[in-house]
Amino acid sequence: MIAALYIRVSTDDQLEFSPDAQKRALIEYAKKNNYQIDEHYIFIDEGITGTSAQKRPAFQNMIATAKKKPKPFDAILVHKFDRFARSREDSVVYKSLLRKECGIKVISVTEQLEDDKFSVILEAMLEAMAEYYSLNLSDEVIKGMTEKARRGGVQSKPILGYDIIDNKRVVNKEEAEIIKKIYDMCINGQSIGSIAKHLNMLGIKSKTGSPFESRRIKYIIQNPVYLGITRWNYTHCQGSRIVIKPESEWITVENTHEPIVSQQTWDEAQKVLGTWHKDVKPRSTEYIHWLGGILRCSDCNGTLVYKTARFKRKDGSIRNADGYQCGKYKIGSCNTSNYIKIKDVENHIIKTLTATLDIVNETWSLEGLNIEYENKDDEIALYKTQLSKLNQKLERAKKAYLDDIDTLEEYKANKEMFQKEIIEITNLINNYSNNHINPQKVAEFKDKLVTAIEAVKDDSISVMSKNIVLKAFIKSIIYNKQEDTLITIFYI
């Protein structure tokens, strides 16, 4: 029998749980119980803390290996059950998967259990105790970090305006000037988008070397760190989202480092920022126009977003100039507006759809395609028969060698010849499939074109319905204002 070894060491483990100590114990158990150890099946996660199995690369690699057919090993040896998983949910899920789908046992060499009902209960108790320890450890870590925050210690990466020296924030004079400029532009009425655009045009980068955008500017203006205040426990992760905690849970400590802006500057900036955002409405989940989410910027590949524009003529009448503009330009991370009027893009789409339908009708007749496709099926079936025969010959050549009928040299020569023919026929099948058009797909594409043309012209059909019809076969429409081109990319 073959056994895999899984070794996990977290940052809080003592010497007795070191990788070498765990490995020695596992190998000793394997020898006593007639398990063979393959070096390829020794999986080690070092310095891994926390309870989630998803955050352990070696563990995930082991599970993926265990799923292979035929199964590569019969058991997984661990030092203790809490090395395998501290979360009962993870433990149940992965042990069940390994046992039922892979036929692989998980064995703790220091907590040996039989396969009776009592052992199942005891195993669950051991895992529950390990999970409690992990949760308790998390609480202790949070307590320690909280105390560190109260003393003004740094518990985050360096931010723009400061360097971290000896675990203290020290003003970076060059970057501090950028921070002062951001606050000054804000107080003087510049929007966060225009501030980001201005900095990007000057070639100024964030601390991480990336371009500025409006949300980064907003974060800088609202961050009390520039007042000399350390703020911690401000946010937490909720899945993939970062959520702001209630203010009562924040930990803030004043005068922990040198400020970059004054209290007066800070207060004025907050006041200006508040006037920008007090009337902001929640983002709508519906598109204003049926082209929503389809138009793309040729410069950054960002989505063009709807822009409302009204202009008053000399005679007092109002001119509607609604259009689409690059969303990243709006927040300052793209230098090209790529603005296009609604009427211009609508006319282009209708002309493109109509012209595409004409080309499809002129180029392909469904009757001719059906005959060609049937002939193609016959050709492919013939090639597949030849391929099957070659694979059988290859198996017979292998058997002849294993039965000592052919020499190794003869087997190698036959294998090379058959494999060469197999590759040639496989390429023929692939080329034949790729170079012939499926009449069913052409018919479906034509139907979608006709439906889309009718839909966009029909005022009684809703914006969302039109949008769904277009997105069924249009991947994107790329607009380049400088060249005055709109390139439509279809799903075929």
Automatic annotation (TrEMBL):
**Which InterPro entries does UniProt cross-reference here?**
DNA_bind_recomb_sf, DNA_bind_recombinase_dom, Recombinase_CS, Resolv_N, Resolvase-like_N_sf, SSR_resolvase, Zn_ribbon_recom_dom
GO function term, MF aspect, one: DNA binding
Q: Which UniProt keywords apply?
A: Coiled coil, DNA integration, DNA recombination, DNA-binding
Residues in domain Recombinase?
Answer: 159-279
**Which Gene3D superfamilies does this UniProt record tie to the protein?**
Putative Large Serine Recombinase, Chain B, Domain 2, Resolvase, N-terminal catalytic domain
The answer to whether UniProt assigns keyword Coiled coil to this entry is: yes
PROSITE patterns membership: RECOMBINASE_DNA_BIND, RECOMBINASES_1, RECOMBINASES_3
Name a single GO biological process: DNA integration
Can you give the residue ranges of the Resolvase/invertase-type recombinase catalytic domain?
2-152
Q: Which domain of life is it from?
A: Bacteria
What residues make up the catalytic site?
10
Annotated coiled-coil positions are 366-428
Note one Pfam family from the annotation. Resolvase
Q: From the Swiss-Prot or TrEMBL record, give the protein name.
A: Recombinase family protein
